[in-house]
Amino acid sequence: MTPDIEWRIAKGHVPYPTALAEMDARAAAIREGGAGELVWLLEHPPLFTAGTSADPAELFNPERFPVFAAGRGGRYTYHGPGQRVAYVMLDLDRRGRDLRRYVHALEGWVIAALADLGVAAWRAEGRIGIWTDANGREAKIGAIGVRVRRWVTMHGLAINADPELSHFSGIVPCGIREFPVTSLAELGLDASLARLDQALRRGLGGFLTALGERGGEA
After folding, report:
1. In this structure, what CATH number is given to the domain that contains residue 140?
2. How many other β-carbons are positioned within 10 Å of the β-carbon of residue 174?
């Protein structure tokens, strides 16, 4: 682990407004040199977030979960218990002002962590997210959504360990109707968040290398 990257795992379910406020404050502090970079792993209570391209026609919400404007790119996304969310606050002034490379590196980090857990996953041309095979059908197991403010990254990724998959029916996830979502649990695998966290941590060095890490090896 690079000494200036904090690795934090939250306890309990973090309310979404709390997470947004924390990200805003930390990103500002990173930009001003008052704090180091942060990878923050957490769970949210059941909710939907709306990205900057969200289409109201893609929100159904039969469970009446709260809906929050996220400020990130993308469309509607579900977050809830059993889903590992990782908010990544890095300084791209230091690591290279290349947003496309950053998103590609995030995707690669998720794919590598899932491979570590025995899941073959991939990017799909023209479709946002991380995909795998679920009973012979391609299904989404991970989501990517980012925001960059003054070249400090915010938001990040989400991986379905064992969320209530029926909750995704309240939206068109990321605007993609044709394919289902899946999870580690649905694939019959160990869905422990602790195990997933360990895989993400082991893959952090590869993520930083793909990003063009300039501060030493993780």
Report:
1. 3.30.930.10
2. 23
Q: Which two tokens stand for residue 167?
A: 């909750």
Separation of alpha carbons 95 and 216, rounded Å: 11
pLDDT digits (tens, 9 = 90+) for 169-206: 999 988 888 899 999 999 999 999 999 999 999 999 99
> Is the confidence at residue 217, as pLDDT, over 50?
no
Residue 10 belongs to domain spanning: 5-211
pLDDT single digits (tens) 131-166: 999 999 999 999 999 999 999 999 999 999 999 999
C-alpha distances in Å from residue 194, one per residue of 56, 71, 105, 113: 35, 28, 22, 12
Q: Are 67 and 61 in contact (CB under 8 A)?
A: yes
**Rounded Cα distance, 177 and 162, in Å:** 21
Pick from 171, 140, 152, 117: nearest CA to 30: 152
Catalytic residue among 30, 174, 181, 199: 174
pLDDT classification of 1: cutoffs 50, 70, 90? very low
Q: Is 130 a catalytic residue?
A: no
Number of domains in the chain: 1
This prediction's pTM: 0.94
The neighbour count for residue 18, using CB atoms within 10 Å, is 12
